[in-house]
Amino acid sequence: MNKAIYRILDANLDRAREGLRIIEEWCRLGLNHKALAEECKQIRQELAQWHSWELRQARDTPGDVGTELSHPQEEARESIEQLLQANLCRSQEALRVLEEYSKLYDPEMASACKQIRYRVYTIESTLFNSYRHQLLHSAPLYLVTSPEPEILKIVEAALKGGLNLVQYRDKDGKDSDRLEMADKLCQLCHHYNALFIVNDRVDIALAVDADGVHLGQNDAPVAFAREILGMQKIVGRSTTNKQELNKAISEKADYVGVGPFFETPTKPGKAALTQEYVDYVKAKCSVPWFAIGGIDLDNLNGILTTGAQRVSVVRAIMQAEQPTQVTRQFLSQLVRR
Where are the domains of the chain? Predict the structure, then answer.
């Protein structure tokens, strides 16, 4: 019995440390997040102290019936987010096994593994918050969808062009249809390592595990969305004047939409904003902001001369004959600036 317990402890110490090393490499080289990388390294070293010679001696790799066990989901990863999640789960599960079985071996080890497991949960929350916000900050182009018949093909074409931020917007569809489409779009975006945001509907964002929600002025408060979705998700807010901008910043929105820059059928009855408001946004806005409203390739340079660095578009891509090419043209001009 002791040998079997030793083998279990040995295998799961390896498993937990291997999973954490994979997370550490992304924190260090993918996110440049020194604190997270150091925490992963510290935990690996603490676990190594429990990996005694006695436990290592019990290892029997040729006799381990689990070495040939596999699952199709383990053979490929569709995104960096999926890779990270899989290895976080691997470490957390291994730590739970260590916590339970080490109660038969060393109660102090059991207690240590329990506390380490909680620290890994904290790493998970911080990691995905950092990952999403890094993508958000690096995104110069934001596609807001319209309910086109070929919406999936259009969005995928834009993603192939380098787009990494998509908002699903459908004001008039049935809830069941919107939920189904949101789920398909979410999976599609994550396949291309892009962020997926749901317009207005916190419930749909939660149901499909979207990266966040975008709220209009008449929608739920930012704090409510965070309570439902969790602190690691993104919450954006539309603004059209100084008062709305100040409120969005005070609510700690992660980004804001600023518009409309031009009159647009998406916001009927809304007059184009003034240069005074744009100047106020440039001076006061402490979060990423996206110019929106009737923006296309013909007027993009004019938008950029106002001081905008990020833009949101709808018709320019959703109704384009070649969404991939149009997306590349947008990104080429935006990145060049």
Answer: 2-59+74-134, 139-336
* Catalytic annotation, pick one of 91, 102, 130, 238: 238
Nearest to 192 by CA among 221, 230, 217, 166: 166
Alpha-carbon span 306 to 164, nearest angstrom: 24
Query: What pTM does this model have?
Result: 0.75
Q: Give binding residues as ranges.
A: 167-171, 199-200, 219, 238, 264-267, 294
Domain spanning 139-336, CATH architecture: Alpha-Beta Barrel (3.20)
204-243: pLDDT as tens digits: 999 999 999 999 988 899 999 999 998 889 999 999 999 9
Give residue for tokens 């919450």: 235
At 146, the amino acid letter reads: S
**Angle at Cα 274 formed by Cα 273 and Cα 279, nearest 5°?**
115
Q: Which residues pair with 312 in a beta bridge?
A: 142
Asked if 169 is an active-site residue, the reply is: yes
Asked if residues 291 and 314 have their Cβ atoms less than 8 Å apart, the reply is no
Task: Write out the H or E segment, with its range, that includes residue 336.
Answer: helix 323-336
Give the Cα separation of 289 and 35 in Å (integer): 27
